[in-house]
Amino acid sequence: MNRSSVRPFGDDTAARAPVGLAPAIPDRPAPALSLPPIGPSFDPGAQSGMPGGDSQFLQFVQPGWQDRVQLGHYRDVLGWEPFPPAPRDFGDRRPSAPRGISTLAYAPEQQFEVWRSHKGPIMGVGLPPGVAPADGFVAEYMTCGLGGLHVAFGHADAYSFSHALGARRAPIGCWRLMLLTVGEIWIDTPDRQTHIRPGDLFLLSLDEPFRGRATHHGGLSLTVPRDLFAAAAANFDGAAGDILTGPLAGLLVDYLRSLEARLIGMLPEELVLVGRATAEMLAACVGPSRYRQEQARSTIASILFDRARSHIQAHFGDPELTPERVAQDLRVSRSNLYRVFEQAGGVSRYIQQCRLFAAHAALTGESGRRIQDIAYSCGFKLASDFTRAFRREFGFSPREARDAWRNQGGPAGEGEDPRFGLAPAE
User: Who has the most CB within 10 Å: 94, 208, 274, 406?
Assistant: First the structure.
């Protein structure tokens, strides 16, 4: 199956590095799947005959199943529940705290039936050739309601899926945004074929016919109600079925990646605010009108600042790191980069401060290293330039900083100012 043409949103091509939203759990191979053509007679609803409801599955819940949860970084920080066989209510707009759900709560032969029941209103699902329900089916997610949007982080075993319009399925009224971390997904829609790989950001309409298959895969999915984006519906529909790329898509990826760790512990009102910021960012990415970009400007600026700051902190030891290099590495314009660093004194100033404070920490914590070696390791090309910059920043020389630290018998207390115990040089 051919990879679809990607859809650029912006003037540059976004970096497509994988992101760490789900554990890289070994895949169970998914053989090639022969899919029927999409057309009026294509009705995968007939594949899903399992009725909904939780009670019929309660007898299969296994004692101590929480100890087998594979999302180890969530095991002890979330409340875990059996994967709900009943479909999610897409009309529920209440914020909900993050919780963990897993099919591992059930006996292996029931795990895929639970998954099938849960997915029923959206799509029919099937196991890959050669895989039987008795083999088990692992699906685990951290889910969270953002006051309209619904986000899930996790992974699922290989399966095939299909969705067609018709009397058997009520309209969903949603799009789904997927950020893949591990595995691969192949999706056919009536007008295109798409091969989704790790790092790809993909938008799918749940109200249009589609079919496909997935290997064991993990990542993020964001369910987006249509009525929340009525003014931008045409843009979303036009982007559905595409891999999103470009500067705004790259910023959206960074923002979505940051959500995973930040949602845990938020209050309901904070989750609603996160949902609004996410909606603004998504609308600016998919439908970049002037009005929507203005609405999302503060969110975009915050994401760009965090992204640039992390990049600088990771690379300040490179003497060739300059504001121009940072802009090039992040694939953003220099003017946008300079704008978000105005309150921090500028990009050059921030790079210099990172280097100087790292050098100060080394001088007062690594007494065996030569001062010039510390200067070089922190990105300074000349020791003399380092000494002058250090004195301008702290009011004393590198050697005076080291001597004062030694005279005090060790490092200053945690969190104390670098000038602790030193008087400015005359």
Answer: 274
Tens of pLDDT along 73-98? 788 888 899 999 988 888 888 999 99
At 253, which amino acid appears?
V
> Residue 174 pairs with which residues in a beta bridge?
225
Q: How far is CA 317 from the centre of its chain?
A: 27
Kind and range of the H or E run holding 82: strand 80-82
The Cβ of residue 385 has, within 10 Å, a number of other Cβ atoms equal to 11
**Which residue matches tokens 């059996």?**
82
Please report, for residues 296, 301, 317, 337, 408, the alpha-carbon distance to residue 344 in angstroms, rounded to integers and kept in the order given. 21, 13, 20, 12, 32
SS3 173: coil
**E-only strand ranges, 308-423:** none
Q: Give the whole-angstrom CA distance, residue 288 versus residue 296.
A: 10
Q: What is the pLDDT of residues 120-167, one digit of tens each?
A: 878 899 999 999 999 999 999 999 999 989 999 999 999 999 987 654
CB 374 within 8 A of CB 362: yes
Domains defined for the chain, CATH in brackets: 7-266 (2.60.120.10), 301-407 (1.10.10.60)
Strands 139-145 and 150-156: antiparallel
Contact between 244 and 286 under an 8 Å Cβ cutoff? The reply is yes
Distance from C-alpha of 135 to C-alpha of 106, rounded to nearest angstrom:
12
How crowded is residue 302: how many other Cβ atoms within 10 Å of its Cβ? 15
Is the whole model's pTM more than 0.70, yes or no? no
- Rounded distance between C-alpha atoms, residue 263 and residue 271, angstroms: 7
CA–CA separation, 141 vs 21, rounded Å?
11
